[in-house]
Amino acid sequence: MATEQQILETLNRFTAPGSTTGLVDGGAVRNVEVDGSSIRVALAFPAGPPGPIDGLRTALTQALTNLDEIDSADVQIQTMLSTISTAPTQVQAPEPPSWGEKITGIKNVIAVASGKGGVGKSTVSANLALALAQADFAVGLLDADIYGPSQQMMTGAKGEPRGTADGRILPIMAPGGVTVMSLGFIVDPDQPVIWRGPLLMKALEQLIVDVEWGDLDYLIVDLPPGTGDITLSLCQNVNLAGAIIVTTPQDVALIDARKGLAMFQKLDVEVLGLIENMAAYTCPSCGNIDHIFGSGGGRRTAETLGIPFLGDVPLDPSIVVGGDAGTPVVSDRPDSPAAKAFIQLAKTIAGERSEE
Asked: Is 26 within 8 Å of 87 (Cβ atoms)?
């Protein structure tokens, strides 16, 4: 039976169209699965002419089936916009000038962060962006969660970003007037993004710098959970107007929210405040209010840490339904308590910015 090393060596003998680097060394190999005598390989690299790509698929299939005890090979190739490149020669540590010096036309870049996953950070980002757009601001929404992009679904934005003649990327206009950019528009949703730090940083830089955002009052950046490479690189390379921390009333979420705050403080990024999501549930039948995850933890944490408490968002199943359907609650149910909470949050944040 062919070994993993033999399979990788075989793949690395081939190059993507327009590249001189082997598929493995160039970071084009996303996944390799061996099931008995069958191999399944997933590749991803910048789009090129269909002829060379089809020829590469045929050649790879032949080479893999020539390996010991391999009877069949399924080679899947995902092509991406040429501006999203994974070649290692393009993913070295960024040199001055910083990304921020290359960004023009955006007045305020606001990061939405959380110390842990599952607190509704992406939901807050989408609805906050939409609420700001409803207040007649020009708003963009960047999905910086490279491993788990979701804004392409949550905002209802449809289509595939197109490239311009000068190599820029045009974002997608979502219902409600928010321009959205997410890696979810480009990569196969069923394929995992298996990238190390340098590739992540290059992808983030291109999603910010190479996108034709136009003139924006606000660019809302939906960060991945935690305090990893993406968040660190954004803070170091972009002049942020501030950061918003999303948490729930649970003690474990509040602990992680404190870590997020400490990171932004160390990086000299102003924290605009804390939002408590999933604050309370109101029974639609009897009107009883139930604090399922606790009560008041977000406000107490904000007071203890000396940062503004921006407000809370109730626990409402329609928020989840709207996110899955691409109809955020702000637009789908504008008179609901949840939508009103997001609208008030937008007014608070816009007020904070207008005072400066």
From this structure: yes
